[in-house]
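so my prof wants the structure for this chain in the tokens format not the other one, which i didnt know existed until like an hour ago. anyway here's the sequence
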Amino acid sequence: MQQTIEKIMTTREVADRFNELAQEEKWFEIQDELFADHVKSIEPEHSQHPKLVEGKLAVRKKGEAWVARITEFHGASTSVPLVSGNHFAVDRFVEITVEGMGRIKAHEIMLYKVENGQIVSEQFFY
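here's what i got, hopefully its the right format
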């Protein structure tokens, strides 16, 4: 009888896969593939988004609601991840037109925590 041992990805491996998908703007694929079911999404106090969203489905709905408000995409870039311990961070720039906000340019730091090969939290600083 042969046993299959599933390898748990390291933080570096998660960050590298995140980077592959981010460079292609595949943010929902990142959520599907790398987020834990109990993931948390944390926004800054001044954000118009909910400050804390918990659970993969709720985080997905938050993202879908934001994307639905984007009327035009002008460009974006995401830096290579900086990995330290069980965290990694990226610098994100985006230029978009958003319903009710007009055309905006935004820079943010996105911080991710990895446990057992999955992203368990994302936190945004802008």
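also thought this was worth mentioning. The longest strand covers residues 102-115.
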